[in-house]
Design a protein that fits this description.
632 residues; alpha+beta; eight-stranded antiparallel sheet; six-stranded antiparallel beta barrel; 53% helix; globular
């Protein structure tokens, strides 16, 4: 009898081993078939999963995965140049949402990487209770390029589970954060559902949307719509009660006056979650995105802050000033000062009655060495604050004006003295441009800001074509020079060059002509570096560097003696000219310009020896001798 029991146990053990081996083989087979179709949809604030439906780039996911307003990227496995590679698609667009279910269609373009996509196979059969199923998804670990695909298996615990009027599959497979939107497959690799949610307080109880009866006709074009504005408002009110506490603590942490605490980290997370849910419930409420942006700014998550502020501005371009302030500050934190100037100038026009923007623009101009223009802004803002009776900003602006006006000559100070009525007349002229743009339903008052929004979000904005004269109270040539400096700072190099030339033409004043030539030379150099980053623009970039060196030589010859900063600018421009000749394989001119750069004070010998722009020229006796001559 004992022998028979042992035989039965041995047989049972063998059967279990066979079943285990089969289950393992099924999991491997499913991952091989479905894995290449699984993508990760991610941005600064969230990550989720999707599955490729067509070779043309249609992806199926949950609607809640892509309800976040930040621009998404899609990390996917593709066939490219005969090998399987992981690439990131930057152009990701939500095209359709299901009429009733938490499903959305997302579009990517395979041509972006000249790649082939591997679509999944959808099952048209309803799954059966007890069937073994497999979920593949991406843990929420950030936005790195490497895919973190995981596969989990479980049983279909039940079909037709009713949740808020919709039918779901209940599954026992472990569902991880980031699995939402991912495929649920049978053992043959057919996708039977889309993983959607799990119970937070119970292990191994997840839910998926069945796909057997889903058709493309069930989807409608995606558009933002209010789902539950009342609930969103309640969430915002809850957040408002906490956000001031977070702001105070974050400022202390950033100043080093307090350490980061777990309690505050949890509070930030709760705040962020409340506002994210509010954004999903009422995606047309710009105040939701104002709160999200502020939370991200306080948490020093500047790219996310930027995206939320852009969304707020898109929804209401003439609403509050705060989104513009946080937008340009978050751009500065990311090292994008030229774009921050674009936003700052837009804010100056839309909120010319706000002393804040006059003061901050003045501080920025002073920091760049444009003292007179900075003092001009302090005067404008001071008068605005005085008329408004603003007892906070008026003394601040007066203090800044007095502090920096002392650097100017008496003649320069005298030229800035204008009656308050004239200042208000100029401010009202700027406000009139804003009002006309608002009445014409033009989201932007400047072409540069409209271009910035389109580059960042893909959204087109109508803009005003009227000239905005921020420095209209200065003499004509000085006004042109001030606007040229602003144009250079915001990356409008052609405009800066044209305005600098105009200032030179309209004035014989040596100081103005000197300043205009500096702006022109600097704008040409910045333009050269900007063009060098664009494919197919090498010739134009080289020409800008040549013209820059020519302008700096003219500056050196006409306006010497130069200070240390100016000498450095001249020598660097000529060094860049030498590099440009090096790229063009013009050895004689490259050596001649390099010698001139050294003679004008360029001394970064190590950079020169390792500068690949000079190519094989670096190994010639002439090059080595020249570097050795000036390295002593």
């Amino acid at each position: 009898m004992m022998q028979r029991k042992i035989e039965w146990l041995a047989l049972l053990s063998l059967l279990l081993f066979v079943q285990s081996s089969q289950a393992q083989e099924d999991a491997v087979n499913v991952f091989r078939q479905v894995g290449p179709s699984v993508v990760r949809l991610h941005n600064e604030a969230s990550t989720g999963t999707g599955v490729i439906l067509t070779k043309g780039g249609t992806i199926l996911t949950n609607a809640h995965v892509v309800s976040n307003p930040l621009p998404f990227e899609c990390t996917a496995e593709v066939m490219k140049d005969g090998t399987r590679q992981t690439v990131v698609f930057k152009n990701v667009k939500v095209t359709k949402v299901h009429k009733d279910l938490d499903l959305a269609l997302v579009q990517i373009d395979p041509a972006e990487h000249n790649a082939q996509l591997g679509p999944c196979r959808l099952s048209k059969e309803k799954a059966i209770t007890g069937q073994r199923l497999y979920a593949i998804g991406n843990p929420a670990t950030g936005s790195e390029i490497t895919l973190n695909k995981t596969i989990t298996e479980g049983l279909l615990s039940g079909v037709d589970r009713d949740i808020e009027g919709a039918k779901y599959y209940q599954i026992s497979a472990a569902i991880n954060p980031g699995n939402s939107g991912g495929p649920l497959s049978d053992r043959t690799g057919n996708v039977v559902g889309i993983v959607t949610l799990k119970l937070t307080d119970v292990d191994n109880v997840g839910f998926a949307i069945p796909l057997y009866d889903i058709t493309m006709a069930d989807f409608e074009p995606y558009s933002r719509k209010t789902i539950d504005a009342a609930k969103a408002l309640a969430l915002l009110k809850r957040a408002e009660r906490l956000i001031e506490e977070v702001r105070i603590q974050s400022n202390k942490e950033n100043r080093g006056e307090a350490e980061q605490s777990l309690e505050m980290a949890l509070l930030r997370a709760i705040l962020f979650q409340n506002c994210q849910e509010a954004a999903y419930l009422d995606p047309n409420n710009e105040e939701v995105f104002n709160q999200l942006g502020l939370i991200c700014f306080l948490a020093q998550s500047f790219p996310a802050c930027q995206a939320y502020m852009q969304e707020s501005i898109r929804l209401d371009p003439y609403g509050k000033a705060t989104p513009y302030e946080l937008l340009y500050k978050s751009l500065i934190k990311q090292g994008r000062e030229d774009k921050s100037m674009v936003v700052r100038m837009e804010a100056m026009v839309k909120f010319a009655h706000d002393p804040l923007f006059w003061n901050e623009t003045g501080v920025m101009l002073v920091a760049k060495g444009f003292i007179k223009e900075g003092v001009y802004c302090f005067i404008q803002g001071g008068v605005v604050a005085k008329v408004k009776g603003d007892r906070v900003w008026e003394p601040k602006l007066r203090q800044n004006m007095i502090k920096y006006a002392g650097v100017l000559s008496q003649e320069e100070r005298d030229s800035l003295i204008v009656p308050d009525a004239k200042v208000l007349e100029n401010v009202n002229r700027i406000k009139k441009i804003m009002k006309d743009a608002y009445d014409a339903k033009q989201g932007a008052t400047t072409a540069a800001f409209a271009q910035f929004i389109e580059e960042e979000t893909g959204e087109k904005m109508e803009f005003s074509t009227k000239r905005i004269r921020l420095f209209a109270l200065l003499p004509p040539a000085e006004e042109e020079l001030a606007e040229a400096r602003l144009a250079q700072l915001r990356g409008s190099f052609d405009t800066a060059i044209q305005l600098a030339d105009k200032a030179t033409e309209t004035s014989s004043d040596k100081k103005i002509r000197r300043g205009a030539l500096l702006v022109k030379a600097g704008a040409l150099q910045d333009q050269g570096f900007s063009l060098a980053k664009e494919p197919g623009k090498d010739a134009e970039s080289n020409q800008s560097f040549y013209e820059c060196a020519k302008a700096y030589r003219e500056f050196r010859d006409q306006y010497g003696p130069l200070n240390d900063l100016e000498r450095n600018k001249v020598s660097l421009a000529i060094y860049n000219e030498a590099c440009t000749y090096g790229l063009e394989k013009n050895s004689n001119k490259a050596l001649a310009s390099l010698r001139e750069a050294f003679q004008n004070g360029y001394r970064n010998v190590n950079a020169t020896l390792n500068d690949e722009d000079f190519g094989d020229l670096r190994y010639t006796p002439e090059f080595k001798a020249l570097v050795k001559e000036f390295s002593r």
